[in-house]
């Protein structure tokens, strides 16, 4: 679970961080956006914002320096690291910045709107305009869940290449190709390695990844205003599941956006151009990370909240120490995701039994899926019964999956040259000694009188040998000792019989 | 017919179920642990007509609650205890009639025992002695002894009857938890010294016997000397620079100052190492109260009286609604409501257990004025 | 007991359950409004913002609100069957407020109004000076117990916050201490903000024993600011924070003898329980009764000796 949440956070966080300050200021005009962005901050940063939010009238600056603020955290290394991290994130999102006099300034737009958010002031309509009366045939939550799942899984099915019902919308096609989740194949789009990785993420991460790509397109191709698009995303995240909302008050861009999002399964509209829309669980949990499972304990108690969990967010996988995997699912999609790294054995009405084997994992690794992704998929989709255990997954299985990954990396290639066919041991040792002293040797075998040297060492060794040959020639006058690569010498013990261009071989050395 | 049969079976088998460390009612046991077959917890699960396990689970819960019924009569208890825990480490402890072994289970329970002992007896002392190969070493004089004994024989240097007489004279209460079989001399010793003697039937019963000893023991009327112990209530200090404490001779910043001799000690409760005054803090004394007032048992509310309440008074969880008997649905046996006879509020089973085991306050009595 | 897992370890991802106990003693609030200008209504507005801030911190943060009134402790939120507050008007939904904030705020305020509707009972209150804080604490512990049982993976970290105005009620000493020890055992910190009046010794101990925070409000006008700085941080954040004014509490036997500080006393090694007619009021004195001029006076078999003969500690029965 934690991995899933951090994934989501870094993604949307990075996206926001890259925005220019002016755009951020525009974004902070909406309290809903302020709240959503506020929740992306680290704990300590959130606390700083809260502590300083109501200190003074809106217009007057906060009279604090960084060192004043530091007094609030413990004087320990861990705490100070957190402190620095908090301030860095705050300033990157230009919520709190340090001016040239060293005073901390809170973004006044953010401050005002976030205050409005907490006190319920203002008339910004930033949390969606609800319909005065619910529609007589208002869809219930189960229906919305089904709608969301159907739309979203259609996209995923399309990516996996299941015998698909229909071609997804143009917006979907644009996003998947642009995000390089799929690429042009022979006659149709085929999934890429990145696409496989995408499939292993939890739904919330997938949705965000999708939306962020969409944001890019919206900016470039559809000429939509980034601020409007982001505001709309964050507003959707603040809506209440199962309520009627009116399209009144949405800008034209946002209305257009709504159509696309309905396509992705984030919202439901009875028909195009209908005056009402209903956010689905995909939308309302946008800003809450992947929380549907964990918060269920409380939500069933509090009278306000959302009801049952979305079907996909419920964990369904049980892994045993003997590498057997039981998945309580009927979804074709989930089964095909499992097939990425498991060997399916038996399929029952509501359960699939599979094995995690070396081959199956290696197959996944070849697709560019990493061991960590497999492990995080298994742990985030673990059955509630599994979640009670510490550690969650059997360590043997986790370790083995990692080992299988490392196994692939155990060969390391080094370019080099092999020297061989020395006539006698003395020559061999002499050259080897020279090469060793200069640190050129990669590998050697005394018995076979062979060694190999690095690429840069090759030139030196060669000239050394040439020098030696020349020396012998002048000394011995032919008869003794010096050999040439071309076997010109008549059988006398020559040191460098071999040194011929043909014999220089590039070798890949394995270890 | 089949319905009835199923139901009967559920009743019988549930006696053997071993859910978590749910403590079983010892009187319901039918035999010794080694006489039973290997227990598989799923064997005893029974589905009801709808294929649901709900009723079995509810019956279990209900049984758990039964255990809670406690004597709430007037008794007098000693709050300052000095107890030895003697653990047998002889070869007999390697027996595996208690799972995983006598020794492992003893150590596990002893650990829990010690925590619970100090929770309920915050200003008491506890010493531990292990016996092995004919030797036992005493560390200091305390007034109570608890022996966990796996062996069937004892190894006495002198006359055991003299030893028992000495124990009686010194007012030392001896309790024994036997893991093997009843030993006459132990029984005699416990009887004479007014301790308790029990032989375990199975794992859960072991824990029962052990934990029975935790609540402060009742005091007989003849023993009623109302002995007074002088105690100091030290004040806490935080020094600017570290100074040495009297107990460990280590430099410390925070600590407590003995009320009589003003030496600095690290933690409470303790005896002052300098003037030997017993030092406690007021919460320690108050904690002694914590387990001493058992609150009245709640009574189960029958279905026909339960219409008035829709949710648990203290935790707000909704109660099961009154089900019509028509439609063939068998109504759940109990209404899930439990009533305090003082304030007449209804509580759910979890709150009932929680209130009696942990808080020792009735939320209804405290939150309303009647 | 193993359901109640160790709540000590906290993660950044944890959700927080905040149980607010608001002391709504109307007599004291009326007096307080006159003397300091902070009325209950005003304080409630601050508390609402505080609740919203808590909910804003994390999407899965939860809140429960209990009123500790003069004659009753009552849940204000969540309640099992919430009244539909003016369903037909536009008020149920408001595009200017986050829906979760709105639901909580509306219910708390609506139920609070109900609590104050029947003011005629005011004269029949048995103990006008204090509020039913022990009942409220017991209820909050039961509620937390329920939530924690349901949360099998230990994701929710509970804590209790008490906004107190009434003075300590000796009647409730044992029951409050019972709650404190239970909370300590379950690892639930109790924060206390004393909005008005003398320091509440019982609650001070509650905060100290359970590892919570205690603050006596220096200026009632800055209520919200103190809430935000001192009481808002969740348990994870607190591991990195240090706050001004985290002092040690003196554990002299003050509370037993009603603020008469004793250094050395005699304590009976047996404890007498009369379950059927426990005089709760007398209990705090049971343990340590006073001694004059070095002599011993026995009260229910328990005595106390003053440290020096000359010092008068006086019986407080």
Describe this structure in words.
- The complex is a heterotrimer of chains A (511), B (370) and C (317).
- With 511 residues, chain A is of the alpha+beta class.
- Chain A has helices at 2-17, 21-27, 31-40, 43-53, 66-70, 77-92, 108-119, 141-160, 170-178, 193-200, 203-220, 226-237, 252-264, 281-284, 296-299, 332-339, 358-366, 371-380, 384-387, 395-408, 425-437, 455-476, and strands at 96-98, 104-106, 182-184, 189-191, 245-246, 267-268, 276-279, 317-319, 324-327, 343-347, 352-355, 415-419, 441-445, 450-454, 505-508.
- Chain A folds into 4 domains: 8-119, no CATH class; 141-290, no CATH class; 314-408, no CATH class; 415-508, Alpha-Beta Plaits.
- In chain A, helix 9 (170-178) crosses helix 11 (203-220).
- Chain B has helices spanning 2-13, 54-66, 102-120, 160-169, 184-192, 203-212, 282-290, 349-359, 363-367; strands at 76-78, 82-88, 125-132, 135-136, 144-149, 173-178, 197-199, 228-232, 235-244, 251-257, 264-265, 270-271, 278-279, 299-300, 338-339, 346-347.
- A 6-stranded mixed β-sheet of chain B has the order 4-3-2-5-6-7, with helices on both faces. Chain B has a 3-stranded mixed β-sheet with strand order 8-13-12, with no helix packed on it.
- In chain B, helix 4 links the parallel strand 5 (144-149) and strand 6.
- Chain B is globular and about 70 Å long.
- The two termini of chain B are 49 Å apart.
- Chain C has helices spanning 26-36, 40-57, 99-117, 133-150, 173-186, 201-210, 223-231, 235-238, 280-287; strands at 15-23, 62-68, 73-77, 156-164, 190-194, 214-216, 264-268, 270-272.
- In chain C, helix 2 (40-57) runs parallel beside helix 7 (223-231) and helix 5 packs parallel to helix 6 (201-210).
- The interface between B and C is large, with 71 and 74 residues.
Proportion in β-strands of chain A = 5-15%
- Domain tally of chain A: 4
Largest sheet of chain A: 4 strands, antiparallel
Assembly annotation: heterotrimer
- Count up the helices of chain A: 22
| Largest sheet entry of chain B | 6 strands, mixed
The CATH superfamily name of the largest domain in chain B is von Willebrand factor, type A domain
Total of DSSP H or I helical runs spanning 4+ residues of chain B:
9
Low-confidence stretches of chain B: 1-29, 325-330
| Rg of chain A (C-alpha, Å) | 32 Å
Pfam family, one (chain C): Tfb4
InterPro entries (chain C): TFIIH_Tfb4/GTF2H3, vWFA_dom_sf
Main location (chain C): nucleus
Keywords (chain C): DNA damage, DNA repair, Metal-binding, Nucleus, Transcription, Transcription regulation, Zinc, Zinc-finger
